[in-house]
Amino acid sequence: MHDDLQLLGRAVKQAQYRQHRALDSALSAVGTTLAQWDALRAVDRTPGASARELAAATFQSEQAFGTLVGRLVAQGLVERRPGHGRRIQHHLTPEGERTLQTGHAVAAEVLADCFAGLSTAERATLLGLLERLNARE
Question: Please, is 114 exposed, middle or buried when counting C-beta atoms within 10 Å of its C-beta (0-12, 13-18, 19+)?
């Protein structure tokens, strides 16, 4: 049983690693990285969110996200606006929206390839199982 759980954990990590490498490589061809595109997705999902909220949404530390969003601001992809109190809100620029949409098209192709070995029903089952595990947080 102990070995089976380790094998399962490693298989999940291996699939994630393979997917991340493929996404990062394909996204670099259109001028962004997986981390940058993921940050743009998070800003798009929650416009006006704070760096703390966006760091949590992208599985990064606040410091790492701060560095990343600084680069996105310098590239003209994200803008920071004053919020309530000391809060800084984050919003996509039109260029950020274009980069995000380009990334969506790239990701659709890469993810279709990553999950090509599974049927539609198997993908739905896998998603359901992972959602159930992640709901336990």
Answer: middle
In this prediction the pTM is 0.88
The predicted model gives 1-29 an average pLDDT of 93
Q: Which residues pair with 92 in a beta bridge?
A: 78
* pLDDT for position 51: 94
Integer Cα distance of 95 and 117 in angstroms: 35
At 70, which helix (H) or strand (E)?
A: helix 62-74
What phi, psi does 4 have (nearest 5°)?
Answer: -60, -40
Q: Are 72 and 78 in contact (CB under 8 A)?
A: yes
How many Å apart are CA 69 and CA 39, to the nearest integer?
8
- State the maximum Cα–Cα separation within the chain, in Å, rounded to a whole number: 53
Q: What is the DSSP letter of 77?
A: S
> Around 102, how many Cα atoms within 13 Å sit in the side-chain half-sphere?
18
- Which residues have CB under 8 Å from 4's CB, separation 6+? none
Instruction: Give whole-number Cα distances, 101 to 52, 70, 80, 105, in Å.
Output: 24, 21, 20, 7
Beta strands in 51-95 (DSSP E): 78-82, 88-92
